[in-house]
Design a protein that fits this description.
The protein is of the alpha/beta class. Strands 2-1-3-4-8-7 form a 6-stranded mixed sheet, with helices on both faces. A two-stranded parallel ribbon has the order 5-6. A hairpin with a 3-residue loop joins strand 7 and strand 8. Helix 1 runs parallel beside helix 2 and helix 4 packs across helix 6. It binds S-adenosylmethionine (SAM).
Length: 203
Amino acid sequence: MTDTEDLRSSAPAALRNREAILDVLRKLLPASGRVLEVASGTGEHIVHFARHLTDLEWQPSDPSLQARHSIVAWTQAERLKNILAPLDLDADDSPWPVDHAAAIICINMIHISPWDATVGLMRGAASVLPAGGPLYLYGPFRRADRPLAPSNEAFDRDLRARNARWGLRDLDAVIACGADYGLVFEQCIAMPANNLSVVFRMG
Ligand SMILES: C[S@@+](CC[C@H](N)C(=O)[O-])C[C@H]1O[C@@H](n2cnc3c(N)ncnc32)[C@H](O)[C@@H]1O
């Protein structure tokens, strides 16, 4: 591939939310070590984080070949040395094609995939994280104690129309799923546009 820049794709939402997510990650991630991103998509998040958190080694992944091409293209265009080649990682797979990570991040995946992907994410995260290692999720969630914002109601309807197995996940169900694999829910942080950061740690 000679002109990899042509393969860069862009997601407007990633450009809108990356700064707010980076602010959370600065406080959450270890000072050094490998951070695995599950469902890296275009790669715009990971290049942004790698540019700012230079002591960390960043491992992108996505099951989509088109996404992996975009990640490589962004990495090369930004000349970042602290991003590894993207892995073909489907959260459902067992085992994952990676055996350790100091931390794992997963942004806007669990509502745009069947529930099996959430179960796989928890199972896989538990298999690679050390005790105390964080798993960071970002996205919109349903919460038992409050109604969905109208924008999230509409988003959920749209997702379910596209695929009956997609849709906003119930936060309590996600927390319970993590607990099944030894991931301890630590906190959730309100983010712009009715999204949440949800943090687990490996017990
Ligand atoms: C809405 S995009 C989010 C991409 C990126 N994280 C972002 O926020 O811009 C959802 C991504 O999840 C990936 N994905 C879907 N199902 C998956 C699975 N089972 N395991 C891992 N990734 C998956 C898709 O290939 C896609 O890149």
